[in-house]
Please model this.
Amino acid sequence: MAFSEVVGRERKHLNLLAFDIGGTTIKHGVVTAKGDILQKGSDVTPASMALLFELLQDIKRRYTADYTLSGAAFSTPGIPNQTTGFIDGGSAIPYLHEVPFKPKAQECMQLAVSFENDANCAALAEMWLGRAKKMKDIIMVVSGSGIGGAVIKDGTLHRGANGYGGEFGYMVMNKGGETFSGITSPVELAKRVSAAKRTNVDAVRVFELAENGDEVASREVDRHFYYLAVGLYNLQFAYDPEAILIGGAISERSDYIPRIYEKIDLLIKANSMANLRPNLCKCRFGNDANLIGAVAYFNQSFRPKPEIAG
Model:
């Protein structure tokens, strides 16, 4: 029996092994085909592809002690190529782009495998069960190791002519050539403050320093929100979505969206020809969005094709 037939008949009984591969950690969990997370955990992202596949096998062994698994759903950085199985583009994990990931993962896991871009997964999760459940046109912006993005048009992922639909991180933001990702991602924010202070600090610590009046951190955090607001304001006018959803761990801060709105309101005031204010929403699922979205894409990938009458 084909796997798609199993999914079609017994979808409500399926447990899937979901992975969210990030630059610093790999989140994982057992998720039902209906989107319920039964168990989850995380591990440090390995330094090589060989070590990655060893870790994936180990994670599978941990979960199979308690669960029967019917497939593996991956959320990855870069641009998963559904034709070649490679992850195109670039990311904070260079080795991820060097081999055909999907067939290698299938061989490693001995399970049916799907893979999709991390920001696309977050958007799919929110469209399926989250804040955008009743919407058809949204933009997702995920602030993490870089800036990821996704466009949902008429309820469907918009990939674009070259597969770069939603790759907002590549947008050039100033005459110096800095990209949206390079100028606003929390990782780059932490790098700039660390360099200025000659000590290593992460993004969480940068915001703490800014709150305590540190001049360098305050300046860089203000710059972060300014360019984030510029990017989101321009995206609103480029696509005019019902909502722009903001994801990533840093977006969990209670003041995050209000700080963005402070800068957006300045842009609206300066632009006398239009006063459109983007509808910014925090993701419902937070750090779990990519796991749930990976399962949403798995469900779509293995959905039985309708029979054609002869």
Remarks:
- Confidence is low (pLDDT under 50) at residues 1-12, 306-310.
- The chain is about 40% helix and 20% strand.
- The CA atoms of residues 53 and 104 lie 9 Å apart.
- The longest strand covers residues 25-32.
